[in-house]
Design goal:
The protein is mainly beta. The protein has 5 helices and 22 strands. It has a single domain, classed as Porin (Beta Barrel), CATH 2.40.160.
């Protein structure tokens, strides 16, 4: 019996198919290549940065790295702790829901309330920790995974902020939408929110970015913005009824948004990009008991200009219908798609725009000065915005910032910033807020 079982086992083992990996086989030299802990080198920093998304709020590449001697395998763990001290003058934006240390101009109270026209704060809960792992570096199969956890500066809850994989010009995961031009959107700010008119959003995305063709590059993606599932309901389009005209937004979204761009780079920090965005929105029309589809669109011109090395200009102008959930100041608001008064039960995309200009001056490697101005605006929503208890009374907002950053050491940065914002409504006037704040940020 034992010989019989042994024979059956031998037959079974020979019948198991052999699985071959598509990646190159690991050589003996790779298996014996020692793992070491080193200070960051320019070569390794280049590998890590090309596999990270450009992001105005990106955690810098860490100062230490765990890697194989030939850089075939790289692991880094980094993060920052950022303590911000400041005060509002003219309003109490810091106390508004969804604001805090984020200078969200759409949340400025209109009108400002007596006794609440100023606020002082110390905020130590703006920080993040990230992990990046890269394998087969400097080969055609180079692959990298990036994960970032952090707080939002409002409470101590730690949430997943980024999680994506980069491989062969593809990038997929939870990341900044391809529609955002992070290099042109803004210079650095202490304010985590940034300019009101910046085209910016986090999406579940699959993106492809081409290689460089003599300065030309192109990219395209499929987006499933995270606000589709925020708290179980759709944020950005929902408005169940208006003057008895029902609109049920519970229909599932079955078509992703499609951003794409083409750009030309003349030289470092001299570039121009043209971006297009196709919005796709399904909703339920209860008047006719029909599920309807309503497309939207956006176009954006953006780029940088560097006439002399210490001076960099930033510019971006975006316009479209139904793109509110992609605009910095309007994300999470009920603006992108609104009731169509002429057709009960129907919705249509609202016209809106965002524009930014900015400048950075870097007199030394440690010192940087920045200034920027931005506007976000929406049209054709007056009746909807002024409906009782709609909470959507927003016509336009202005944002301005000037700041200075000084790197005390490679680990410690000090900054000081002045912010000004104005929110204008359709029928109850406008209000502004000014903020002066300073930060001490430790990066590791």
């Amino acid at each position: 019996m034992r010989a019989y079982k042994t024979a059956l086992l031998a037959v079974a083992l020979t019948a198991v198919p052999q699985i071959k990996a598509d990646t190159p086989a690991e050589s003996d030299s790779d298996r014996t290549n020692p793992i070491e802990i080193k200070r960051m080198t320019p070569e390794v920093k280049t590998i890590l940065e090309r596999n990270r998304q450009p992001d105005p709020r990106q955690t810098p590449v860490p100062n230490f790295v765990v890697k194989s001697r030939n850089n075939n395998f790289i692991v880094t763990v980094g993060g920052n702790v950022n303590v911000i001290l400041g005060g509002d003058i003219g309003n109490n934006l810091y106390k508004q829901d969804g604001a805090g240390i984020s200078f969200v101009t759409s949340q400025i109270p209109v009108p400002a309330t007596t006794g609440h026209k100023g606020d002082f704060y110390i905020n130590p809960i703006s920080g993040a920790v990230d992990l990046q792992v890269t394998g087969f570096a400097n080969t055609p199969n180079e692959v990298s995974a990036y994960v970032k956890f952090g707080t939002n500066g409002i409470n101590t809850n730690v949430v997943l902020q980024r999680a994506y994989i980069t491989w062969r010009h593809f990038q997929l995961g939870q990341q900044l939408t391809l529609a955002q031009d992070a290099y042109a959107c803004q210079p650095p700010t202490i304010d985590p929110e940034g300019p009101s008119g910046c085209l910016s959003a986090v999406a579940y995305e699959i993106a492809y970015k081409s290689k460089d063709y003599n300065g030309f590059r192109f990219a395209a993606a499929l987006d499933y913005p995270t606000y589709y599932s925020a708290n179980g309901y759709y944020r950005g389009h929902d408005y169940p009824s208006y003057n008895g005209k029902k609109v049920d937004i519970s229909a599932d979204q079955v078509i992703p948004d499609i951003p794409a761009w083409i750009e030309y780079t003349f030289s470092p920090w001299n570039r121009i990009r043209l971006t297009g965005l196709l919005r796709n929105f399904r909703y339920r029309d209860d008047v006719t008991n029909t599920t309807r589809y309503q497309p939207g669109y956006g176009v954006m011109l953006s780029g940088n200009l560097c006439p002399v090395k210490p001076l960099i200009f930033y510019y971006q102008v975006a316009y479209g219908k139904g793109i509110g959930a992609y605009l910095q100041d309007l994300a999470g608001q009920e603006f992108s798609y609104i009731p169509d008064d002429a057709r009960p039960g129907r919705m249509h995309g609202a016209r809106m725009m965002g524009a930014n200009i900015g400048v950075s001056y870097n007199p030394t490697s440690r010192l940087q000065f920045n200034a920027m101005f931005s506007e976000s605006r929406i049209w054709d929503v007056a009746d909807y915005a002024t409906a009782p208890d709609s909470g959507c009374n927003y016509k336009y907002a202005l944002y301005a910032a000037v700041n200075c950053f000084y790197n005390i050491t490679p680990y410690l940065q000090w900054g000081i910033e002045y912010l000004w914002g104005h929110k204008q409504t359709w029928d109850i006037g406008g209000a502004h807020d000014s903020r002066i704040q300073t930060q001490l940020a430790f990066t590791f």
